Amino acid sequence: MFTGIVREKGRVAALTGDPGGIRLLIEGPETAARVAIGDSVAISGCCLTVVALENGTLSFDAVPETLARTSLGALAAGETVNLESAVRAGEPLGGHVMQGHVDGVGTARSVEAEGDGRRIWFDAPEPVLRYVVEKGSIAVDGVSLTVAALDDEGFAVALIPHTLAETTLGDLEPGQPVNLEADVLAKYVERLLPR
Predict the structure, then answer these.
(1) CA–CA separation, 133 vs 68, rounded Å?
(2) What is the pLDDT of residues 50-72, one digit of tens each?
(3) pTM above threshold 0.85
(4) What is the DSSP-derived secondary structure letter of residue 73?
(5) Count of alpha carbons within 13 Å of 57, Cβ hemisphere only?
């Protein structure tokens, strides 16, 4: 389980493989110091298992299912990613409950200055957008955010300077893909309602 409070921006050191599966090496010394082989880490919102650790670099395997549902396969060496290790019992739940199970890939529609922060609109696929509500929670590239506005194609968020500085969202430009995870509570409520 994750909370969407990014603890470190990591750097992609290498990405090898093909559509049948990739090995992703990420430099993240702070995260590497907190985890062990077999632990879960959210990479820009996608929960992956640490398969190797060496000198502050974490290794992960991503299979076709992961590559089809996330933006991880489009990464390249040198790019930055948001890192969050799984929450441990007793740690604060600062964002919202997240599983690291990406529901779909969205696209940054627009990025506009708004005071000291920025308002970013995202286009989202309908299977994700159906769970998005104004003032509800959404995870964008693993960052827990509050929905500021909605339209028929997507949603907007208002980002504070801290979020812009501490996550990859500060470098986001229109047209870039992002991993989206809708609030898990909405999905369970829908499943439990009579059909």
Answers:
(1) 26
(2) 999 999 999 999 999 999 999 99
(3) yes
(4) G
(5) 12
